[in-house]
Amino acid sequence: MSNALDQLRSMTTVVADTGDVEAIRRLKPVDCTTNPSILLKALQSPDFEELVAKEIEAGKKSGATPLAIADALTLGVGAVLTTLVPGRVSTEVDANLSFDKDASLAKARGIIAGYEAKGIARDRILIKLASTWEGIRAAEVLEGEGIQCNLTLLFAFAQAVACAEAGAFLISPFVGRITDWYSAKEGGRKFEPEEDPGVKSVRRIYDYYKSNGIATVVMGASFRNTGQIKALAGCDRLTISPQLLTELEGDEATLTRYLDASKASGTPRISLDEADFRWQLNEDAMATEKLAEGIRNFEADHKKLLKLIADRLH
Which run of H or of E encompasses 217? Predict the structure, then answer.
Protein backbone atom coordinates (compact mmCIF):
# COMPACT_ATOMS: atom_id res chain seq x y z
CA MET A 1 0.00 0.00 0.00
CA SER A 2 1.21 3.53 -0.73
CA ASN A 3 1.98 5.86 2.15
CA ALA A 4 -0.39 8.59 3.37
CA LEU A 5 1.44 11.31 1.45
CA ASP A 6 1.12 9.47 -1.85
CA GLN A 7 -2.54 8.76 -1.12
CA LEU A 8 -3.10 12.44 -0.31
CA ARG A 9 -1.46 13.45 -3.58
CA SER A 10 -4.00 11.31 -5.45
CA MET A 11 -6.85 13.50 -4.15
CA THR A 12 -5.26 16.87 -3.31
CA THR A 13 -2.52 19.09 -4.75
CA VAL A 14 0.27 19.16 -2.16
CA VAL A 15 2.13 22.43 -1.61
CA ALA A 16 5.27 22.90 0.50
CA ASP A 17 5.02 25.50 3.24
CA THR A 18 8.74 26.22 3.26
CA GLY A 19 11.67 27.90 1.57
CA ASP A 20 13.96 24.98 2.48
CA VAL A 21 15.61 23.98 -0.80
CA GLU A 22 16.61 20.46 0.26
CA ALA A 23 13.14 19.71 1.67
CA ILE A 24 11.50 20.86 -1.55
CA ARG A 25 13.88 18.74 -3.64
CA ARG A 26 13.20 15.66 -1.52
CA LEU A 27 9.44 15.98 -1.05
CA LYS A 28 8.63 17.21 -4.58
CA PRO A 29 5.56 19.40 -3.98
CA VAL A 30 3.69 20.93 -6.93
CA ASP A 31 3.84 24.48 -5.56
CA CYS A 32 5.55 26.22 -2.69
CA THR A 33 4.36 29.10 -0.58
CA THR A 34 6.41 31.62 1.33
CA ASN A 35 5.78 34.38 3.86
CA PRO A 36 8.11 36.81 5.69
CA SER A 37 8.82 34.26 8.45
CA ILE A 38 9.77 31.55 5.95
CA LEU A 39 11.81 34.00 3.87
CA LEU A 40 13.76 35.20 6.91
CA LYS A 41 14.64 31.60 7.79
CA ALA A 42 15.56 30.76 4.19
CA LEU A 43 17.92 33.70 3.86
CA GLN A 44 19.81 32.59 6.97
CA SER A 45 20.44 29.14 5.51
CA PRO A 46 23.55 28.06 3.54
CA ASP A 47 21.39 27.53 0.43
CA PHE A 48 21.07 31.27 -0.07
CA GLU A 49 24.39 32.46 1.36
CA GLU A 50 25.75 33.34 -2.08
CA LEU A 51 22.57 35.16 -3.09
CA VAL A 52 22.57 37.23 0.10
CA ALA A 53 26.24 38.16 -0.28
CA LYS A 54 25.71 39.15 -3.93
CA GLU A 55 22.69 41.37 -3.22
CA ILE A 56 24.33 42.99 -0.19
CA GLU A 57 27.42 43.82 -2.23
CA ALA A 58 25.31 45.19 -5.07
CA GLY A 59 23.37 47.24 -2.54
CA LYS A 60 26.54 48.72 -1.10
CA LYS A 61 27.74 49.79 -4.54
CA SER A 62 24.43 51.32 -5.60
CA GLY A 63 23.48 52.84 -2.25
CA ALA A 64 20.27 50.83 -2.17
CA THR A 65 18.08 50.91 0.93
CA PRO A 66 17.60 47.80 3.08
CA LEU A 67 14.01 47.66 1.77
CA ALA A 68 15.17 47.61 -1.86
CA ILE A 69 17.70 44.89 -1.04
CA ALA A 70 15.03 42.89 0.81
CA ASP A 71 12.82 43.09 -2.28
CA ALA A 72 15.71 41.89 -4.46
CA LEU A 73 16.36 38.99 -2.08
CA THR A 74 12.69 38.06 -2.07
CA LEU A 75 12.71 37.84 -5.85
CA GLY A 76 16.00 35.94 -5.76
CA VAL A 77 14.64 33.30 -3.41
CA GLY A 78 11.41 33.08 -5.41
CA ALA A 79 13.36 32.63 -8.64
CA VAL A 80 15.30 29.71 -7.13
CA LEU A 81 12.08 28.12 -5.90
CA THR A 82 10.54 28.28 -9.39
CA THR A 83 13.33 25.95 -10.55
CA LEU A 84 12.37 23.40 -7.89
CA VAL A 85 8.60 23.12 -8.35
CA PRO A 86 6.58 22.66 -11.54
CA GLY A 87 3.79 24.96 -10.37
CA ARG A 88 3.53 28.28 -8.57
CA VAL A 89 5.58 30.19 -6.02
CA SER A 90 3.64 32.52 -3.74
CA THR A 91 5.32 35.85 -2.97
CA GLU A 92 3.92 38.13 -0.30
CA VAL A 93 3.11 41.84 -0.38
CA ASP A 94 4.52 43.58 2.71
CA ALA A 95 2.25 43.16 5.73
CA ASN A 96 2.40 46.86 6.56
CA LEU A 97 0.49 47.52 3.32
CA SER A 98 -2.44 45.33 4.35
CA PHE A 99 -4.79 48.29 4.77
CA ASP A 100 -3.65 50.24 1.70
CA LYS A 101 -5.17 49.04 -1.56
CA ASP A 102 -3.17 51.34 -3.85
CA ALA A 103 0.18 50.63 -2.18
CA SER A 104 -0.55 46.90 -2.31
CA LEU A 105 -1.28 47.18 -6.02
CA ALA A 106 1.97 49.04 -6.65
CA LYS A 107 3.97 46.48 -4.68
CA ALA A 108 2.32 43.52 -6.39
CA ARG A 109 2.92 44.96 -9.85
CA GLY A 110 6.53 45.60 -8.91
CA ILE A 111 6.96 41.99 -7.79
CA ILE A 112 5.57 40.68 -11.07
CA ALA A 113 7.74 43.09 -13.08
CA GLY A 114 10.78 41.94 -11.12
CA TYR A 115 10.07 38.28 -11.87
CA GLU A 116 9.40 39.01 -15.53
CA ALA A 117 12.75 40.82 -15.73
CA LYS A 118 14.29 37.52 -14.59
CA GLY A 119 12.44 35.65 -17.33
CA ILE A 120 9.83 34.20 -14.97
CA ALA A 121 6.30 34.48 -16.35
CA ARG A 122 3.50 35.76 -14.15
CA ASP A 123 1.68 32.44 -14.45
CA ARG A 124 4.41 30.91 -12.25
CA ILE A 125 3.74 33.37 -9.41
CA LEU A 126 0.92 33.97 -6.96
CA ILE A 127 0.81 37.33 -5.20
CA LYS A 128 0.01 36.85 -1.52
CA LEU A 129 -2.16 39.48 0.13
CA ALA A 130 -3.71 39.57 3.60
CA SER A 131 -7.47 38.96 3.51
CA THR A 132 -8.35 42.46 4.69
CA TRP A 133 -11.02 44.40 2.82
CA GLU A 134 -8.25 46.42 1.14
CA GLY A 135 -6.22 43.33 0.30
CA ILE A 136 -9.25 41.67 -1.26
CA ARG A 137 -10.03 44.75 -3.33
CA ALA A 138 -6.43 44.88 -4.52
CA ALA A 139 -6.68 41.22 -5.53
CA GLU A 140 -9.82 41.99 -7.53
CA VAL A 141 -7.91 44.57 -9.60
CA LEU A 142 -4.85 42.35 -10.01
CA GLU A 143 -6.90 39.36 -11.16
CA GLY A 144 -8.34 41.63 -13.86
CA GLU A 145 -4.77 42.33 -15.00
CA GLY A 146 -3.89 38.64 -15.26
CA ILE A 147 -1.98 38.63 -11.96
CA GLN A 148 -3.33 35.79 -9.87
CA CYS A 149 -3.51 36.07 -6.09
CA ASN A 150 -3.30 33.98 -2.93
CA LEU A 151 -5.40 35.57 -0.17
CA THR A 152 -3.73 34.65 3.08
CA LEU A 153 -4.40 35.10 6.81
CA LEU A 154 -7.95 33.89 6.23
CA PHE A 155 -9.85 32.95 9.39
CA ALA A 156 -13.48 33.94 8.87
CA PHE A 157 -16.23 32.74 6.55
CA ALA A 158 -16.89 36.39 5.63
CA GLN A 159 -13.34 36.65 4.28
CA ALA A 160 -13.89 33.57 2.12
CA VAL A 161 -17.14 34.97 0.74
CA ALA A 162 -15.53 38.31 -0.13
CA CYS A 163 -12.53 36.61 -1.77
CA ALA A 164 -14.86 34.58 -3.97
CA GLU A 165 -16.78 37.70 -5.01
CA ALA A 166 -13.47 39.37 -5.90
CA GLY A 167 -12.52 36.47 -8.15
CA ALA A 168 -9.39 35.58 -6.20
CA PHE A 169 -7.49 32.65 -7.65
CA LEU A 170 -6.77 31.03 -4.28
CA ILE A 171 -7.43 31.41 -0.54
CA SER A 172 -5.37 30.08 2.37
CA PRO A 173 -7.54 29.38 5.45
CA PHE A 174 -5.23 28.99 8.48
CA VAL A 175 -6.38 25.76 10.11
CA GLY A 176 -3.87 25.53 12.96
CA ARG A 177 -4.13 29.14 14.06
CA ILE A 178 -7.93 28.88 14.26
CA THR A 179 -7.60 25.80 16.43
CA ASP A 180 -4.91 27.45 18.57
CA TRP A 181 -7.34 30.24 19.47
CA TYR A 182 -10.15 27.92 20.48
CA SER A 183 -7.77 25.64 22.35
CA ALA A 184 -6.42 28.57 24.37
CA LYS A 185 -9.98 29.72 25.17
CA GLU A 186 -10.84 26.24 26.46
CA GLY A 187 -7.86 25.70 28.73
CA GLY A 188 -5.61 23.95 26.25
CA ARG A 189 -8.25 21.54 24.97
CA LYS A 190 -7.07 19.03 22.36
CA PHE A 191 -9.54 18.57 19.51
CA GLU A 192 -10.16 15.38 17.59
CA PRO A 193 -10.13 16.02 13.82
CA GLU A 194 -13.91 15.86 13.40
CA GLU A 195 -14.41 18.51 16.09
CA ASP A 196 -11.38 20.61 15.20
CA PRO A 197 -12.52 24.23 14.64
CA GLY A 198 -9.91 24.84 11.94
CA VAL A 199 -10.90 21.70 10.04
CA LYS A 200 -14.59 22.58 10.32
CA SER A 201 -13.91 26.09 9.01
CA VAL A 202 -12.20 24.80 5.84
CA ARG A 203 -14.88 22.18 5.28
CA ARG A 204 -17.57 24.88 5.47
CA ILE A 205 -15.74 27.11 2.98
CA TYR A 206 -15.08 24.20 0.62
CA ASP A 207 -18.75 23.16 0.69
CA TYR A 208 -19.89 26.75 0.06
CA TYR A 209 -17.54 27.17 -2.90
CA LYS A 210 -18.41 23.83 -4.48
CA SER A 211 -22.14 24.34 -3.87
CA ASN A 212 -22.00 27.55 -5.88
CA GLY A 213 -19.54 26.67 -8.64
CA ILE A 214 -16.97 29.12 -7.28
CA ALA A 215 -13.64 28.63 -9.04
CA THR A 216 -11.46 30.06 -6.24
CA VAL A 217 -9.06 27.37 -5.02
CA VAL A 218 -9.28 26.38 -1.34
CA MET A 219 -5.82 25.69 0.09
CA GLY A 220 -5.78 24.71 3.77
CA ALA A 221 -2.69 26.03 5.58
CA SER A 222 -1.01 26.29 8.97
CA PHE A 223 -1.36 22.73 10.20
CA ARG A 224 -0.41 21.57 13.68
CA ASN A 225 -0.62 17.81 13.11
CA THR A 226 -1.28 15.21 10.42
CA GLY A 227 -4.76 14.54 11.84
CA GLN A 228 -5.88 17.96 10.63
CA ILE A 229 -4.39 17.27 7.19
CA LYS A 230 -6.01 13.86 6.86
CA ALA A 231 -9.39 15.32 7.86
CA LEU A 232 -9.15 17.65 4.83
CA ALA A 233 -8.14 14.99 2.29
CA GLY A 234 -9.76 15.95 -1.00
CA CYS A 235 -9.41 19.70 -0.47
CA ASP A 236 -8.24 21.50 -3.63
CA ARG A 237 -4.77 22.11 -2.18
CA LEU A 238 -3.03 21.79 1.17
CA THR A 239 0.20 23.62 2.05
CA ILE A 240 2.18 21.55 4.51
CA SER A 241 5.45 21.96 6.41
CA PRO A 242 8.35 19.58 5.65
CA GLN A 243 8.05 18.00 9.10
CA LEU A 244 4.41 17.04 8.56
CA LEU A 245 5.06 15.98 4.96
CA THR A 246 7.75 13.64 6.27
CA GLU A 247 5.34 12.24 8.88
CA LEU A 248 2.77 11.55 6.18
CA GLU A 249 5.44 9.92 4.04
CA GLY A 250 6.14 7.47 6.86
CA ASP A 251 2.47 6.76 7.59
CA GLU A 252 1.12 3.57 5.98
CA ALA A 253 -2.49 3.99 7.16
CA THR A 254 -5.31 4.07 4.60
CA LEU A 255 -6.46 7.63 3.89
CA THR A 256 -10.17 8.46 3.65
CA ARG A 257 -11.37 11.21 1.31
CA TYR A 258 -13.48 13.68 3.29
CA LEU A 259 -13.94 16.55 0.81
CA ASP A 260 -15.62 15.89 -2.52
CA ALA A 261 -17.10 18.58 -4.78
CA SER A 262 -19.74 16.15 -6.05
CA LYS A 263 -21.15 15.87 -2.52
CA ALA A 264 -21.60 19.59 -1.86
CA SER A 265 -24.69 20.40 0.19
CA GLY A 266 -26.09 23.09 -2.11
CA THR A 267 -25.90 25.90 0.44
CA PRO A 268 -27.00 29.17 -1.25
CA ARG A 269 -24.61 31.89 -2.36
CA ILE A 270 -24.49 35.15 -0.43
CA SER A 271 -23.08 38.62 -1.11
CA LEU A 272 -21.29 41.02 1.22
CA ASP A 273 -20.67 44.73 0.81
CA GLU A 274 -17.95 46.49 2.79
CA ALA A 275 -20.16 47.23 5.78
CA ASP A 276 -21.40 43.61 5.94
CA PHE A 277 -17.84 42.31 5.65
CA ARG A 278 -16.47 44.53 8.39
CA TRP A 279 -19.39 43.80 10.70
CA GLN A 280 -19.20 40.02 10.27
CA LEU A 281 -15.42 40.08 10.79
CA ASN A 282 -15.89 42.25 13.89
CA GLU A 283 -18.42 39.75 15.27
CA ASP A 284 -15.90 36.91 14.92
CA ALA A 285 -13.49 37.48 17.81
CA MET A 286 -11.19 34.66 16.74
CA ALA A 287 -10.82 35.95 13.19
CA THR A 288 -10.38 39.56 14.27
CA GLU A 289 -7.65 38.67 16.75
CA LYS A 290 -5.81 36.18 14.54
CA LEU A 291 -5.86 38.44 11.47
CA ALA A 292 -4.39 41.35 13.44
CA GLU A 293 -1.84 39.08 15.12
CA GLY A 294 -0.81 37.52 11.80
CA ILE A 295 -0.23 40.90 10.18
CA ARG A 296 1.79 42.10 13.18
CA ASN A 297 3.92 38.95 13.23
CA PHE A 298 4.67 39.07 9.51
CA GLU A 299 5.65 42.72 9.84
CA ALA A 300 7.88 41.88 12.82
CA ASP A 301 9.75 39.31 10.71
CA HIS A 302 9.98 41.77 7.84
CA LYS A 303 11.62 44.26 10.23
CA LYS A 304 14.06 41.54 11.38
CA LEU A 305 14.99 40.96 7.75
CA LEU A 306 15.58 44.68 7.19
CA LYS A 307 17.77 44.83 10.30
CA LEU A 308 19.77 41.80 9.16
CA ILE A 309 20.41 43.56 5.85
CA ALA A 310 21.23 46.91 7.48
CA ASP A 311 23.74 45.20 9.77
CA ARG A 312 25.42 43.55 6.74
CA LEU A 313 25.67 46.90 4.94
CA HIS A 314 27.95 48.35 7.64
Answer: strand 217-220
Task: Determine the Cα angle at 53 with ends 108 and 21, to 5°.
Answer: 65
Query: d(Cα 101, Cα 138) in Å, to the nearest integer?
Result: 5
- Of 222, 186, 196, 216, nearest to 298 (Cα)? 222
- Please say whether the beta carbons of 257 and 235 come within 8 A: no
Beta bridge partners of 151: 129, 171
As separate numbers, helices (DSSP H) first and strands (DSSP E) second, the chain gives 14, 8
In this predicted structure, the answer to whether residue 80 has a pLDDT above a threshold of 70 is yes
Distance CA 110, CA 191 (A): 42
| pLDDT of amino acid 1 | 66
Q: Give the Cα separation of 90 and 78 in Å (integer).
A: 8
Catalytic machinery residues? 128
Report, as an integer, the average pLDDT of 121-134.
98
- Enter the pTM of the model: 0.95
Q: Given its phi and psi angles, is residue 149 left (phi above 0), alpha (psi -120 to 50 degrees) or beta?
A: beta
Integer Cα distance of 248 and 31 in angstroms: 18
DSSP 156: S
The residue range of the domain holding 104 is 4-313
Where does 67-211 show beta strands of DSSP type E?
89-92, 125-130, 149-154, 170-173
How many domains does the chain fold into? 1
Which domain CATH number covers 59? 3.20.20.70
For 20, 56, 97, 104, 152, the CA distances from 76, given in Å and listed in that order, are 14, 12, 21, 20, 22
CA–CA dist 286, 110 (Å, integer):
33
Q: Which of 289, 290, 291, 272 is nearest to 280 (CA)?
A: 272
